[in-house]
Amino acid sequence: MSIKVGIVDTTFARVDMGSVAEKTLKEIAPNALIYRYTVPGIKDIPVAAKKLIEEKGCDGVITLGWVGSTLTDKLSYVVASLALQLVQLKTNKHIIDVTVHEDEAEKPEELVKIALDRTVKHCRNLVTLVTQGGEGLRRYAGKGLRQGREDVGPLTKT
Amino acid sequence: MSIKVGIVDTTFARVDMGSVAEKTLKEIAPNALIYRYTVPGIKDIPVAAKKLIEEKGCDGVITLGWVGSTLTDKLSYVVASLALQLVQLKTNKHIIDVTVHEDEAEKPEELVKIALDRTVKHCRNLVTLVTQGGEGLRRYAGKGLRQGREDVGPLTKT
Amino acid sequence: MSIKVGIVDTTFARVDMGSVAEKTLKEIAPNALIYRYTVPGIKDIPVAAKKLIEEKGCDGVITLGWVGSTLTDKLSYVVASLALQLVQLKTNKHIIDVTVHEDEAEKPEELVKIALDRTVKHCRNLVTLVTQGGEGLRRYAGKGLRQGREDVGPLTKT
Amino acid sequence: MSIKVGIVDTTFARVDMGSVAEKTLKEIAPNALIYRYTVPGIKDIPVAAKKLIEEKGCDGVITLGWVGSTLTDKLSYVVASLALQLVQLKTNKHIIDVTVHEDEAEKPEELVKIALDRTVKHCRNLVTLVTQGGEGLRRYAGKGLRQGREDVGPLTKT
Amino acid sequence: MSIKVGIVDTTFARVDMGSVAEKTLKEIAPNALIYRYTVPGIKDIPVAAKKLIEEKGCDGVITLGWVGSTLTDKLSYVVASLALQLVQLKTNKHIIDVTVHEDEAEKPEELVKIALDRTVKHCRNLVTLVTQGGEGLRRYAGKGLRQGREDVGPLTKT
């Protein structure tokens, strides 16, 4: 049985993370049905994610936000991100809320790198959660994994 | 079949964005039924938007807030904006939450320019979302579009 | 048919805005039934407003909060104000969330002036919204009205 | 008919405000049934308050939180306090959300004084609200009452 | 009758707090059924906690988050933590929302120590709450207990 995965991305973003996610999901879950929904900015994402779950029957969604560096942008991030929590709690489905913040890097090429790495890794996380539930990531628990940058690793040896 | 679009604006705003939105919507969606609701300030917007959707049957709403530059204003923005998320999640309709912040520009004429540009562009976004769903903005995904200012463009060539 | 209007005020406030609201409402809406509910502080306001709507049948409510100047006070403002949004969205009734912040003015007499002006003007706003809906304030849309201070006016001539 | 009042307190607090509240409530409402629920910290308070109302039938609850002075502590305060609003709106019962913040005073003895005064005065407020509704505090409206410190009084003579 | 306890942990964390919690719970509640759910980061925790309660029937859950030191991390903490409140209020079950913040200590070994101590002590708190309700922690009320560090004790003798 194939899974259904949703992608919500924005026209505000400066990297086409949606297409990267689409390509990645097709590679790691070739049988998955993929639904994509493009909105203007991060505050338009939550209702789109909800519609993908409720109207398209998605088993999980990855959302790809791009956040400016002003205080207003940060506040909008809180608003959008909290609404994504509400969608998850309403539907009992995972939504991986990926965001790239413009204050994460000084150079554009670094921001691009963060966006691509974060998108790809979180696509994998989403597929693992959707197909294997809470067991699939067990072996990485506490391992200091990072998306967007290199893993920092655990602070202790186990 | 014509669409129904709601506009919520405020008496606090220093630019009559509601009339601009009304005019813009009539141009780009001549058959649309347009409902307008004017409230005092941003914290009065969410229930008005909800009433336009539930009582007038609007398929989508554009809200036009004006936000002062104090910390209290910013906090009120969070409050209003989060409530607009709740309305969207309750109704599964898009509400484009347009706000102009007084700290975005130093000169009044620049604020006016931002307000007009943002209103017009987001009217287009709303009509696209309401009439074409998540597909309509696909070709602009990750293109660094901006409302209120010129587009900044994508960081990568695709 | 007379309207029912609720007033929620606090013992924390340093101006008896509740009595001012009561007097103002009686003047501008002589047939209105007025319900008043006094609570200790702003965080006690939302449930009181909800009770006035659900148990007394109020068509709209004005709440009169007084906010200290510490970070904790500001955070409490967010909490109370967001809860007032929830009440509005639950009941589809307008609640005008009036607050006076102690950092708005240095001199006590100025704070008093702000409190009185804001209360009176928002009483008018509430009655307009309750009796005329979203049309009543249309002519002031984008006019830069202020409550607590003088109107700043629009930035453009229309 | 006796009222039922709930007390939620924490092991994080450095003053046993729960016992103070219990003693105070017994003095001012000798016939009241008192339920007490002790949790680790402020984020554990809301569900406890909800259970006291829904499972024990409490007519009102006083919660006694103690908040550290870091940014994380302040954010946790927002989270807990907002959740207490949700409980109130769900149940239509007053919950007086008492908190003592470690940055309110420099000396421990002053913090103790604040904690005791605030607890005692808010117990009185709760009993008044539960037994007399929105009328009971009317005569103190706008009087600048404070809990934890001396009343500051009104800014105007009425 | 055995209790069911859930553990939600992350791959972002740099200490395997989930395994520590699992071991601790087995020691202090040998008959407990333990369910573990590993997610990428803190924003993925709330829906996992909800699923453990609703789908596995957990009587209580401990969540183990790791929070970076940027403003964005702090905001994500608020978002996740507030969502955990919503899960508690929806289910009337305690969720102990444990988080370790990277700005709590300068040295890695100190962070590890905090993580371990906090996890162990809060496992005890959870079992006490689940098995004894609001009475179990009564004797520690106001005692200035700390998790992650040594107890600071009460400010007054009782």
Automatic annotation (TrEMBL), chains A, B, C, D, E:
Family matches, as Pfam families: DMRL_synthase
Database matches in CDD domains: Riboflavin_synthase_archaeal (cd09210)
Catalyzed reactions: 2 6,7-dimethyl-8-(1-D-ribityl)lumazine + H(+) = 5-amino-6-(D-ribitylamino)uracil + riboflavin
Gene Ontology MF terms in the entry: riboflavin synthase activity
BP GO terms, sorted: riboflavin biosynthetic process
Organism: Zestosphaera tikiterensis
InterPro entries (alphabetical): LS/RS, LS/RS_sf, Ribfl_synth_arc
Pathway: Cofactor biosynthesis; riboflavin biosynthesis; riboflavin from 2-hydroxy-3-oxobutyl phosphate and 5-amino-6-(D-ribitylamino)uracil: step 2/2
Family membership: Belongs to the DMRL synthase family.
EC number from the UniProt entry: 2.5.1.9
Listed name of the protein: Riboflavin synthase
Keywords attached to this entry: Riboflavin biosynthesis, Transferase
GO cellular component: riboflavin synthase complex
